[in-house]
Amino acid sequence: MTLTIAGLQHDGVPGDVDANLAIIADAARQAVAQGARVLVTPEMFVTGYNIGARLAPLAVPELVDRVAAVAVETGIAIIAGLPEQHPDGGITNSLVVIDRDGTELLRYRKTHLFGDLDRSLFVQGSTLPSTFELDGVTLSVLICYDVEFPETVRAAALDGADAVIVPTAQMEPYAHIAERLIPVRAWENQIHVVYINRVGDEGDLTYVGRSSIVSPDGTTLAALGPAETGLLIATIDPETTRRARRENPYLADRRTDLY
Q1: Alpha carbons 155 and 189: distance in angstroms, whole number
Q2: Per-residue pLDDT tens for 90-147?
Q3: N or C: which end of the chain has fewer CB within 10 A?
Q4: Is residue 36 part of a domain?
Q5: 230 within a domain of the structure (yes/no)
Q6: What is the DSSP track for 46-106?
Q7: pLDDT digits over 60-86, tens only?
């Protein structure tokens, strides 16, 4: 089995849930027409990310239901970034994985908060995600800054993931993360990395785009530039993951007695 994934690189409409869901729905229809099984949005795409005090009133449970409705209507699984009220107070920077029949497969809260911006808006999650399967392909997720810690992607690889999906809101001056770090994460863990970013400006941030889907040997399968909007699409093949782990046995050769 293989899994065709579409990533939406877009600027969105800060603070406008209706407009952003409409963008997701349009992208979902395009993705289905191009044979994709799942659509990935950037980090916090449903509401906007760097929107300050406008964020809290938008963090309502109905957001997940509205994403599910789009998935059912368009017939594609959706991985969407959105805010979530934490049971203990505050808001988490979260994502949900909704299958095309509306079933929620996973919910994850960002565990590594980036700088003053993240810490002023969010409380951190406390656990890394479990893996889940779509059409027999094993997947994991992270959010933005999470992927910059080698332990997180390594944990997904050791859990058997064929791909780690990373909605992000990567901004200037950190284009080198998208350009150089993401292929390294794929190579060192023999795992596909699906890195889906924003573009344009939001508040005082300028996003760097450069979304990519990278194979376990570090080869870029699909990518968009620093300012393009639209879809990038690639197919995840578990056999590619298995072959990469035979040819580059980093995981098997680790000295776990030393570290």
Answers
A1: 9
A2: 999 999 999 999 999 999 999 999 999 999 999 999 999 999 999 999 999 999 999 9
A3: C
A4: yes
A5: yes
A6: TT-SS-GGGHHHH--THHHHHHHHHHHHHTSEEEEEEEEE-TTSSEEEEEEEE-TTS-EEE
A7: 999 999 999 999 999 999 999 999 999
- Residue pair 145/113 in contact (Cβ under 8 Å)? The answer is yes
Which pair of structure tokens corresponds to residue 23?
A: 């963008």
Residues identified as active-site? 43, 110, 144
Is 198 within a domain? yes
Contact (Cβ atoms closer than 8 angstroms) between residue 136 and residue 229: no
Owning domain of residue 219: 3-250
How far apart CA 214 and CA 234 sit, in angstroms, is 9
What CATH code is carried by the domain that includes residue 151? 3.60.110.10
Q: Which residue in this structure is represented by tokens 């957001």? A: 63
The pair of structure tokens assigned to 150 is 């080698």
Are 82 and 54 in contact, with CB atoms under 8 Å apart? no
At 194-253, the pLDDT tens digits run 999 999 999 999 999 999 999 999 999 999 999 999 999 999 999 999 999 999 999 999
Residue 253 burial class via C-beta count within 10 angstroms: exposed 0-12, middle 13-18, buried 19 and up: exposed
Does pTM top 0.90 for this prediction? Answer: yes
* Structure tokens, 154: 């390594």
Q: What share of the chain is helix, strand, coil (3-state, %, to 5)?
A: 35, 30, 40
Task: Give just the sign of the alpha carbon dihedral 161, 5, 150, 124.
Answer: negative
Structural domain count of the chain: 1
